[in-house]
Structures
1.
Amino acid sequence: MPPTVNADAEDRSPNKIYPPWNDETVDALNLYQKEGEFHPFTCGQGAKGAHVGGISLVATAAGWHCPVGTCYYTQNWAWTFMAGKNSDPPPGVS
Ligand SMILES: [Zn+2]
């Protein structure tokens, strides 16, 4: 697929993976969040109440979610490298 330059280009990046994620991928993503050589994904709700300092998102088979009980924030993509996969097709994609 040739690279395209438009507003949606980032969301179509082959460097991203999308749910559903298998157990292996979920574990890898959560490990990444914990050991974070880079800054972990944090809740997009920003610094509000329980979110002061940033809340690291938690990966599940259905994608990321904020661990704060009253927060609805979710995110449906991750960087491929976060799952430790360089060239494999994204899990769940056939
Ligand atoms: Zn949140």
2.
Amino acid sequence: MQGTMLYGPRDIRSEALPEPKITRPTDAIIRLSATCVCGSDLWPYRGIAPIEQPTPMGHEYCGIVEEVGKDVKNIKPGQFVVGSFATSDNTCIICRDGYQSSCVHREFMSAAQASLLRVPLADGTLVATSDVPSKEFIPSLLATSDVLGTGWFAADAANVKPGSTAVVVGDGAIGLLGVLSARQMGAERIIAMSRHESRQKLAREFGATDIVTERRDEGIARIKDLTNGIGADSVLECVGTQESMMQAIRSTRPGGYVSYVGVPHGVELEGAGLFFAHVHLHGGPAPVRRYLPQLIDLVLNEKINPGKVFDLTLPLDQVAEGYKAMDERRAIKALLRP
Ligand SMILES: [Zn+2]
């Protein structure tokens, strides 16, 4: 089968790899309808998060179940399924509390930029649709697998409520879908921080009411101007750098909420600043599995169209161009067709 391996900085290759097999009785094998490149894939691609050996890539997926292990009860061959980047049994106390991405049996998925994928803990990890959806829904269903689920968690963890004011730091695909999520949750004012015209346009389509192009002190001053001088109720940090995290905390009003869903690289918080900021902090790897049934319904009922974040579609064997285009910010997010 065709799969994707990262060999080192900017050395990503599409290769013929052995087909995955059921290795545990709780596994399923799915034939992917589509997969994609994640912003977080760019950290190892750029060599910022170095890899120790050639590594199979990809953790966003949806497709048709080919085969299941003998202990899989609910997921059946022929079903269309979506799963999260983190596997979960969906039964332990952490899962039942809604934090499936920290399940006691969690594994992080990889190897999804391929034509076939083994999914551990299939019953807990995968969500099946009642029918096989038509082709036009595939990009949006794929988006629920990570990028929308993460944007949704960002809005939820930042306590976005009807009538509230939300700021979204980061105009990558997750930030843009954080805008969409904040809109769905009823935010009245949504301020997207973005310097890129095409991304500003999509942010507005998804529900942003204001765009702030400034950063650092000027950016914070602009947010304060727009929020009666006090900062926003909810701020969604969707990048993971020191600058974006401080931008988020300093743009939040005392008593407000900051969520952080970008994988942090070099972020350190200083105690006294945090103490006097008086904000709630809540983030981490998004428990996408918690939201999947609701998000799949919203897509299939045509309430949301998160698949618009895919502004580049390539055949799977051109995966290298997908990484390159995202690295150079020529594309927001690349969808790959096996
Ligand atoms: Zn669990």
3.
Amino acid sequence: MDLRCEGCAGCCVDWRPLDPAAAGSDRTGPRPPLDDLHDLAPLTRDEVAGFVDDGLAAALTPRLFEPADRDDSVRIDGVDLAAVDDRPVFVVGPRKPPKPVAPVGTDEPRWLDAYVFLDPTTLQCRIHGDDRYPRTSATYPGHNLELDAETECERVEAAGGGDRIDAAASSLDGLVREVEGDAGAPGTPGWD
Ligand code: SF4
């Protein structure tokens, strides 16, 4: 797979204030998340433990879900949560604090919720190449392509973001992307 991430950051920011169509939605299932974070990129258990061991727990955020019909649920502070064995189901991913950033197709930086490790000036990921670089980021959007699901790359392309995926090179070799000037996108559906 050949991605053109340089200068993009399309999947690293919350596009809803810029272009809702380009943002898409990660609230399509029967269990909507309780939070308003867009495109949370879920981490594995070991990745979460690694960030916590490094003192970076503040870079992470949990996501809880409303229960679907017939789901087990647990009520906490008056809120029903999807649960298994009376324990809430959750995922953990990188936070998206607001940053002044100008992703692909925009000229001026503006305050957008952005992947916690995204450098808003260079549009590069600060932990790309690091041991802590999440697998979700390393493989995005390979799984989407394999499942024939829309990617952020295609959405930002459609919104005027140029040619992000090289179709001629879009075999999913190892589901690990080869990038030109990688932005370290968390992907998402993140998991941007
Ligand atoms: S993965 Fe796609 S949307 Fe994300 S930075 Fe790279 S080209 Fe842009």
4.
Amino acid sequence: MKLRMLLTSTAFAALFSFGLVLGGDASAEDPKPCVAATLPKVKAACEKGGQAEVKKLMKAVVDKAKAAGKEMKCLSCHKDLKAFEQTPNAMDDLKPLL
Ligand code: HEC
């Protein structure tokens, strides 16, 4: 019985980190899993704390850009702040700032 529970939670964790568990009955405190992370740093943030953690990373990116004299907002790279769909420049702009 114990083993089965362990297996179940391991399987769940694996699914979760692949972003296959969307919605469900996650409580408000659970981080929202990422939907399309590909870069190692972004993926690491996703694994640590889902989209909430990525947002922190992205804020640091915006600050870094500002420090370098480039005015940048979330919407410079995302079409919206719900699905975080990327603009065509997003990937190229993000890489040097990570
Ligand atoms: C310089 C461009 C750029 C800026 C500015 C930027 N993002 Fe991103 N963001 C990206 C790219 C590119 C990805 C996808 C990264 C990947 O594929 O690993 C991403 C991914 C994300 C994700 C993960 C989406 C998912 O579920 O896969 C979140 C959440 C996010 N950004 C939020 C923000 C927020 C909030 C801000 C403002 C504080 C912001 N971003 C500013 C380029 C940017």
